[in-house]
Amino acid sequence: MKLATFNVNGVNGRLSVLLRWLEAARPDVVCLQELKAPQDRFPEAALRKAGYGAIWLGQSRWNGVAILARGADPIETRRGLPGDAADEQSRYIEAAVGGVLVGCLYMPNGNPAPGPKFDYKLRWFDRLTKHAAELLAADVPAVLIGDFNVMPTDLDVYKPERWVDDALFRPEVRKAFAGLVAQGWTDAVRELHPGERVYTFWDYFRNAWGRDAGLRIDHALLSPQLAGRLKSAGVDREVRGWEKASDHAPVWIELAAAETIADKARKRSVPTGRT
Fold it and tell me: Is residue 113 part of a domain?
């Protein structure tokens, strides 16, 4: 199973990029962020023609999240992050796809920090952490995947000293991310690339893409039931260089097939050759 996350930075304006990448990469599940489209303007027909069923939570001008499934319709389990009924920002959607519970998220940016936007980010992070704990307690195969707007360590930013006061890198945010992972989640990309500089975002300004002045802010966190199935993970960097590209590149992970009860029974019945 191949799962991916892609902050498209406008699903309609960059639909050609999204469709081109879907055809080339053929992920089984895709989480999209920053749709920048109201609910009735999501390009469901075009995506279905490309072979993907979808659920989405749109919002005019900004935000918006969606989950796509190749050859299937995601089974929606949650619309919006719990913990604040008054929060109207479209930043979280959740669905069951292929035996995996997929939480697609778009963390608030939080800038300028300090300030009201940063305070909202920390509250949102706290709500996510509480919900993540509930998912772990449910003992189900789950992934939290999307644009976290967090660079967890110095390795995840091209020049850490330039970002010390930014809401994506402030100590409070990195501490919150570390606390989330410490619940029992596995940072898939970092698990398989522990010492590498892996970037997922390059700003449009100051020739960031040309200089490879990137950030790693798009993540996939795996529950213990999925961590053992992790086969590979990476970033489709070349997509960032396409015409009309988003400032993010798609991030993907591959999971081995789940071991069935029948598989386990067969293993137990195979002779070991010992007496």
Answer: yes
